[in-house]
Amino acid sequence: MARKISLKQAVNEAIDQEMTRDPTVIMLGEDIVGGTGADGEMDAWGGVLGVTKGLYAKHGDRLLDTPLSESAYVGAAIGAAACGMRPIAELMFIDFMGVCFDQIFNQAAKFKYMFGGHAETPVVIRAMVGAGFRAAAQHSQMLTPIFAHIPGLKVVCPSNPYDTKGLLIQSIRDNDPVIFCEHKNLYAFEGEVPEGSYTIPFGEANIVSEGKHCTIVTYGLMVHRSLDAANALAKEGIDVEVVDLRTLSPLDIDTVLESVTKTGHLVCVDEASPRCNIATDISAQVAMHAFSALKAQIEMVCPPHVPVPFSPSLEDLYIPGAPAIAAAVRRTVKGKN
């Protein structure tokens, strides 16, 4: 039986096993070593939330602490990937993408296309996403739709430790640039994870709860909020199917369409801002390809179109919760809140 570990431990274990297996895997980031090897090594943190703690002791200088310059080390990681290495660059907070976005979307994402499929850029850019950590507007955004918009990038956002380990190992072995999004509020979430190495293919959504009355499509932290809503609705006789996308690019739209065809109702839940997010994409594709299966309007549950508040009470209101998701299901299934 698999033991239980946290999502944070699953990230660490995936990196550890891949660095052990493949000497071309290196890691770059700010404070990822965190003082290891210096006086006071026992206090070495390993990144802002300790995700890479202990890896330097095992793999040494293949983990590189970088200056506070995302444009420098993300660019260096992309260059190293183009030259045969398999770098992992830790962007820390995804909100910092602004200073290195050109290297990601205008260079790494386009190399294979621009060079006739001959260029490969096997780089993984890990970043924390999401609100609820009291980290204010510049450290709390869910910017997954921005990366999913860019052709040539693969975008991953797991909801549990098992998927995290398998998808991160898959990301490191993949020959394309991958944006690997880790929700900071799920780092402590525990689940069963095998000790050995395994991969989970991209573009395969997971039905985490089966139902017949309504489909909820979501990813990341919102999977857990949606499951809470589904459990509450079950007491009312509403049977909800929850689809965890797992990867946003490639997107498993076929599983979504199959589920909606079965249930006839759709609620899309996304922590990202409501304009042009994953929920709007799913809603549009279902409307195009499964309109005849819909028995009522599509509902979307997203935060308001404002920056993430720093005030704890406002931040709690900002993040979509189980009551709002349940209300959306009732609106489309019963036509009421």
Query: Are there runs of 5+ residues with pLDDT below 50, and where?
Result: none
**What general outline do the C-alpha atoms trace?**
globular
Largest sheet: 7 strands, mixed
- Helical residue percent? 25-40%
Order of helices and strands: EHEHEHEHHEHEHEEEEHEEHEHEHH
The rounded distance between the terminal residues' Cα atoms is 42 Å
Which strand-content bin applies to the residues? Answer: 15-25%
Number of strands: 14
Task: Estimate the mean pLDDT confidence.
Answer: 94
Notable characteristics:
337 residues; alpha/beta; 7-stranded mixed β-sheet; 5-stranded mixed β-sheet; 12 helices; 19% strand
Walk me through the structure:
The chain is α/β, with parallel strands linked by helices and 337 residues long. It contains 12 helices and 14 strands. It has helices spanning 7-21, 55-59, 70-82, 101-108, 111-114, 144-148, 161-173, 221-234, 253-263, 278-289, 312-318, 322-334, and strands at residues 3-6, 25-29, 63-65, 86-93, 124-129, 154-156, 178-183, 190-193, 206-209, 214-218, 240-244, 247-249, 266-269, 299-301. The strands form 3 sheets. A 7-stranded mixed β-sheet has the order 3-2-4-5-7-6-12, sandwiched between helices. Strands 9-11-10-13-14 form a 5-stranded mixed β-sheet, sandwiched between helices. α1 (7-21) packs parallel to α7 and α9 (253-263) crosses α10 (278-289). The chain is globular, with a radius of gyration of 20 Å. The chain starts with a strand and ends with a helix. 50% of the residues are buried. The mean pLDDT is 94.
